[in-house]
Amino acid sequence: MNGFEERLTLSVAADQGHGTKRNLTGAVESLEAAAKHQHPNALNTLGWHALEIEKNHSKAADLFQRSYALGNKDAAFNLAHMYLQGIYPGSGINRVSQPDSKCTPLG
Predict the structure, then answer these.
(1) In a 10 Å sphere around its CB, with 0-12 CB exposed, 13-18 middle and 19+ buried, how is residue 49 labelled?
(2) Does the pLDDT at position 98 exceed 60?
(3) What are phi and psi of 69, to 5 degrees?
(4) pTM above 0.85?
């Protein structure tokens, strides 16, 4: 395992509190260090953090795109999820706040 893989593993442990006290700030710092060296898993994880914690859709999309360009298939799933949820920047779709008027409840 190279140094970046070890940092990624440690950052996930710090984020989730596995074997250590939970430390989100430390986790993000470790991920950012790996991301500076274009580590695809670190970029994807930072994208998830931007999407779910920071609620920054533009930042998340950028990180997922960079990760996908480096071969991370999970990043492609995350980009598709953003698009289908209508939160991908510039998609022109906002399904979260504009439900389809043709949909009716079952029953």
Answers:
(1) buried
(2) no
(3) -60, -25
(4) no
